[in-house]
Amino acid sequence: MTKHTRSSTNDTLQFNVEEETELLSFLRSVMPNRSRNSVKSILTRGQVSVDGHMETKHNYQLHPGQEVTILKNKVAVKESMLIGMSILYEDRDLIVIYKEAGLLSIATPKEKKQTAHHQLMEHVQRENPQNRIFIVHRLDKDTSGVMVFAKSEQMKRKLQRNWKENVKERTYMALVEGQIQQESGTISSWLKENKIHVVYSSQKKGDGQHAVTHFKKVRSNAQFSLLEVELETGRKNQIRVHMQDLGHPVVGDKKYGATTNPIQRLGLHAKVLAFSHPVTNKLMRFEAPVPKSFYRAVS
């Protein structure tokens, strides 16, 4: 039986993966005193993260060098525990969070509760049942990184109305397929969405919503490139469409032309969000560390 390197905090257990295996098998090997059903329920509740992204699939394939983090049961059942996310900042007007890949921003017809919005709603209502949370912008389920929520309809409108002026920096890291030759560049097009919710580019001026994406190569190898991406506009699926236009789709993004997925998640991470506070006008800057798996793919 393989020995697994283990460390722990008050709230979590961490294990390094030493060999190829499926996630459920790995969890059973590191938690030998628990029944199969108990281990399955830990997975289903979203208590397990792999390299910083929440994972609930039993057959998720693990590779040597990855880190598996398990939220301890006692902590997870505490009312105050947030799963798949953590609060970076909170005041009377807004909440800024770090969202892991695998967690929905808001509810869908299939999933109502395991979302950032639902958990934050419960969080603020512990203080006062009348409290509410309002979504300002979204991150795709499989994108990790910084998100901001408003605590009132008025604050949401204020942030959204002046979003372009308020946001001083919005930087993503994108792991894309292939070796990009150019060191930096800008992609500009008009984005439209078809009936099956696929966004596509048009070069015809005014034919859709104008979208501008700037990118800079951080490092690359023969298979993949890691890019720092600055958004000048924030359109739906903008980075994913523009990377496809570039001929280098985001890793794991089958919808927009990707054929590989070495990190077993979407290769997109919202690294920095900096904006002027709508009330105090103070510059707020938040940064979420880039997942290690992104760097491993281009090492």
Q: What would CATH call the class of the largest domain?
A: Alpha Beta
Could you say which structural class the secondary elements and strand pairing correspond to? alpha+beta
The CATH H-level superfamily of the largest domain is Pseudouridine synthase
According to DSSP, the number of beta strands is 18
Order of helices and strands: EEEHHEEEEHEEHEEHHEEEEEHEEH
State the assembly state of the protein chains: single chain
Measured on Cα atoms, how large is the radius of gyration? 20 Å
Helical proportion?
10-25%
The chain-level mean pLDDT equals 89
In CATH terms, what is the architecture of the largest domain?
A: 2-Layer Sandwich
The tally of structural domains comes to 3
Largest sheet: 11 strands, mixed
What features would you describe in this structure?
The chain is globular and about 60 Å long. The protein contains eight helices and 18 strands. It is an alpha+beta fold. The strands form three sheets. Strands 8, 9, 10, 11, 12, 13, 14, 15, 16, 17 and 18 form an eleven-stranded mixed β-sheet that branches. Strands 1-2-7-4-5 form a five-stranded antiparallel β-sheet. The protein has a two-stranded antiparallel ribbon with strand order 3-6. The longest helix has 10 residues. The protein has three domains: 71 residues, RNA-binding S4 domain (Structural Genomics Hypothetical 15.5 Kd Protein In mrcA-pckA Intergenic Region, Chain A); 80 residues, Pseudouridine synthase, CATH 3.30.2350.10; 135 residues, Pseudouridine synthase, CATH 3.30.2350.
Properties at a glance:
single chain; 299 residues; alpha+beta; 8 helices; globular; Pseudouridine synthase; 18 strands; Structural Genomics Hypothetical 15.5 Kd Protein In mrcA-pckA Intergenic Region, Chain A; 11-stranded mixed sheet; 5-stranded antiparallel sheet
